[in-house]
Amino acid sequence: MTQPGRYKIAVLPGDGIGSEVTAEAEKVLQAVSQRSGHEFEMEHGLVGGAAMDATGDPLPPATLDLCHASDAILFGAVGDPKYDDPQAQARPEQALLGLRQEFQLFANLRPVRVYPALADSTPLRREMVEGVDLVVVRELTGGIYFGQPRVEGNERAVDTMVYTRAEVERIAHLAFGLARKRRGKVTSIDKANVLACSRLWRRTVAQVARDYPDVTLENLLVDAATMHLIQRPRDFDVVLTGNLFGDVLSDETSVLAGSMGLLPSASLGVDRFGMYEPIHGSAPDIAGRGIANPLAAILSAAMLLRHSLGLEKEAQGVESAVSQVLSAGHRTPDLAAPEGASITTQQMGQLVIQALTG
User: Fold this and answer.
1) Which member of 82, 223, 235, 313 is catalytic?
2) Quick check: is 115 catalytic?
3) How far is residue 4 CA from its own chain's centroid?
4) Is 191 tagged catalytic?
5) Catalytic hit among 57, 133, 145, 185
6) Which of 76, 226, 273, 308 is least enclosed by beta carbons within 10 angstroms?
7) What is the pLDDT of residue 174?
8) What is the 3-state secondary structure (H, E, C) of 117-172?
9) Residue of 71, 80, 191, 212 marked catalytic
């Protein structure tokens, strides 16, 4: 039996609905604490547009200090329409890149599970999505997002994509290790017929695969992958890809689950420290209305329990509670049929807690 532990969690609600959904995730963690005896000290920090309002900096030094003193980060969302100018030197989204760089969070895990109760909530036919259970493993600190952008007047702009063998090896080992604990298959997605970076990616992944003879490797070009993820989603187990392709494909997979409001993520480094956040954005159009789906944030908290704190039983308890609530027919507006009744953000959070503690 795991001895009760004491952990510190940096909570960075951010902008828009970030504060609403992280509040429910915090309540769930408090319920886990009361049930398990583990103590979670949760301290808030400013990030994104909220931090710019207060300090002019999307990632203030005080927030970084808090994160360094913590065991994990529970993150909400960043983005504010008043800071949408792409030419601005400081933007809320820079906080995410800053945190990834500061803590070398090179791997982004985005699990996608279709709950049986929601198999009719997607645009795809039930028989296509039933049983879908995959995880996208996205390389997070390399590639074109961390290249050297150059703007030449108003007529030409250049972005560079760079990957090293070591970066690809690192993320590939994580993906293959994860596949060993799941169904034993890795699908590596690249554009090796065009891009030099992708040819390096494919060669390196193939070499890493030799260390995992019990795991099957499948290679797909990204354009084909966008079709196959919709046409045969049940065939995928662990999807391994680079930063740019992973950004796009992981949003595509949200369609399989029925709503972005269901999808959590973990950004991991070389040790147990990680940052956990729902994949949805700040959604300023619904902020403050109490209708945001908190389940992605709650499931992100479950991933925090599993990956950073090593509390597998507690993580499974939260995930089981979410499944029970959905099976009972409870829905926030993003999941409800037009004629169906829906519940609020806080009501959904409370139902999860009742399922967890009941």
Assistant:
1) 223
2) no
3) 27
4) yes
5) 145
6) 226
7) 97
8) HHCCCCCCCHHHHCCCEEEEEEECCCCHHHCCCEEECCCEEECCCCCCHHHHHHHH
9) 191
User: Residues 14-50: pLDDT tens digits?
Assistant: 999 999 999 999 999 999 999 999 999 999 999 999 9
Residue 223 annotated among the catalytic residues of the structure? yes
- Domain limits of the chain? 1-107+261-358, 122-257
Q: What is the pLDDT of residues 117-168, one digit of tens each?
A: 998 888 888 999 999 999 999 999 999 988 888 999 889 999 999 999 999 9
Write the burial class of residue 69 (CB in 10 Å: 0-12 exposed, 13-18 middle, 19+ buried): exposed
Domain spanning 122-257: CATH 3.40.50.150: no
Catalytic-residue membership of 145: yes
The answer to whether residue 247 is catalytic is: yes
- The predicted-structure confidence for 228-273, as pLDDT tens digits, reads as follows 999 999 999 999 999 999 999 998 998 899 888 999 999 999 899 9
CATH code for the structural domain at 1-107+261-358: 3.40.718.10
